[in-house]
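Usage

Read records sequentially. Each one opens with the input sequence:
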Amino acid sequence: MNGRRIGTFRTNANGVINIDGLENSWYSVIEKKAARGYILDSEPHDVEVKDGKITRVTLTNRKASSFLIHKVDGTTGKGIYGVTFLVSDRYGKPVAQYTSDQNGYVYMDDTDLQDGKYHIREISVPQGYVIDPEVKTFYVEYGQTSNITWYNTPTQAQIQIVKKSADDNQINGLPAGSLLEGATFEICDRGGNTVDTIKTDKNGRASSKTLPLGIYTVRETQATAYYSVNETVMTANLEFSGQIVTFEVLDKSVSTGVSIIKRGYNEVMPNNPLVYTFSSIANTSSVPLDSFYWRDTLPSAIRCEKLVTGTYNQQLSYKIVYQTNLSNGEYRTINDNLSTSHNYALDISNAALGLANNEYITEIMFVFGHVKAGFAQVETPYLYARSIWGLPNGAMFTNQADVGGVYNGQWITSVSRWVTKVYNYTHIEMPRTGY
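and closes with the structure output:
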């Protein structure tokens, strides 16, 4: 045995290694790796090769003992990752430490634990669990696997919401401090994952499911009708089992309103031009409105010639439609995909719209759709028209402008009217006097 390394060899399916061509000498056989489930025989085995004879060496491996721990959440039945265990011998002397994998398993089949009695206990657990003080016992027996299924019930607490009105609500008549039903809240863990969604009941209260201890954020996602969402993000720190963290959340009443003002000439003669202006067109609500529009309803005493659209403070696309005395209530489009940031001058004369000789516009409507709170006109819209022939002196006609939008299924509207009086000049021949 000169210490020279001959090579590394692996057993075949029958557990045999054949080595040929060796010189006469003494050799040392050392096992470097045992088959899975067996304990390594680390002792060297000396053998002499002589005169071409077959020399046999037999190595015996002891089948390994093993143990399997499965750490399980007692509520969900899922394995718990990151639980660390300390293994001690029968005399309480620590011999090994293991941590559960992503499925809650600790499996050891290459251990050097000798046969006998051992103790195991938890020494650390992930957030949301409390260390189980119980010490469990298992036995290592030759060739056997000891199994332990260990349940942990997570320490849990709860989040509750009490929802109240912050002020007197002018729409539903509820006073400040009223408990509000139907507000929705979202609860997220530290990773931003939604763990629960809750809604207040008729008593204004909402309760989460029981949650593992930890830090959570709570935010309101939908308010009770006629109230605005409270944007405050609340933090709940669940620190001990059975704890209930309660938040009182106040929502302010929403205000709803729209506005429009129409102005024109006080007097006009037959077959004379008129100009109408439209101002203060706005969603004055504290909430968005759907199906927002403004409209001008025209009398038969005038004929439209030109429309200046004005501009608006929110970037939207809108369209303008109209009706005539012959359209039977059906809207026709003057123009579509108009930009609220551009001021258009549109020819809306009978000739430009291709109307019949006995046809005239009776209604013009701007259709915006969904607008946010604070939507408002910037540059002034104008309607240019002309009074018709034959209007009697002293006659009066009215233009009516209205604006509206939908909130929570209800129309919010406002109307502005302008009355014009006809002045029909009549020439009276006065008698001549004098000489």
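Summary fields computed downstream for this record:
- The mean pLDDT is 89.
- Residues 350-353 form the longest helix (4 residues).
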